[in-house]
Task: structure prediction
Amino acid sequence: MSAPETRSEYTLDWPAAWPNSQSSAMLKSQPEDFLVVELPLSEPCGEGEHVWLWIEKRGANTAFVAEELARYAAVKEMDVGFAGLKDRHAVTSQWFSIYLPKGETPDFMALEHPEFRVLRQQRHNKKLRRGDLLGNRFEIALRNFSGNRELVEQNLQAVASSGFPNYFGDQRFGHGGGNIESGIRMLKREMRVRNPKKKGLYLSAVRSWLFNQVLAERVRQGNWLQRLEGDVETDNGLPSGPQWGRGKSLVTGELEQLEHAVLAAHADILDALEHAGLQQERRTLVVKPDAMNWQWREEADNSLTLVVRFCLGAGYYATSLLKEVLTVTEPERLSQDPVASEGDDQ
Result:
């Protein structure tokens, strides 16, 4: 993606782990170039107080679809659930749930809307909540390729075999990194935020930015793929980085010293995050995509398109993977749209 305009010192220019391929391509020339299919934790069982809907949306954000469903079902917006936000300028498929314990069940498949369609309807005994997903399957077409195919192939192979740095994507930080600045102003009590959702969004942006700062330093040092002395034990054996909060650091020794050196300049922000009630957590530094494959496609106008397919777990960013392969740009209309991209299921 083209680098967004940044504000003050809160840069979003993270270093790549794999070599510069000296290549570029266009992302999201049209919604069909970015296909996302949610991988659910479970399927609806067929009975219960909630109606689950499998929906395909095109060019619409997830919250908007939820609002439209609430209006159609004549329920409150809080009665509509979904597992994760999907990119707006894309074609995406995901589950929504609606709390409808009594009365006749509406035929949601009869709902006609220009931006989404209901493909399946079934009852279940639980509401769908944020994070209730295994991950997402992606198929991404990168058009108007220009550059060195051999170097791109090398990066694709490296990502497929070793993984890529688990940076939080630019979506997390808002247009031009505005969520970081708002979050820090809020933490310093220079700005009051009453809306709980906005407060959570800003806190998450600041915390994620600090994580990216540590990961960026690990990438610069060339040790982002390896566990350092003092790291926590993880199920997958991969190295971890800090998601700051209250409590004693979860790591010790060499790693604690490294992270302290990176974050020392932001001691006031760390202290404010602790007082905001967040707890110390760890996040893996490395993402290894599943079922990754790719192909080159020559278009009718003789331009070259790279099609990449892969699966990622919940909370990981497809855009962070793409940045390791080549330079990705977006159409001007999207770079100026503050809500064109929602995120890859935080």
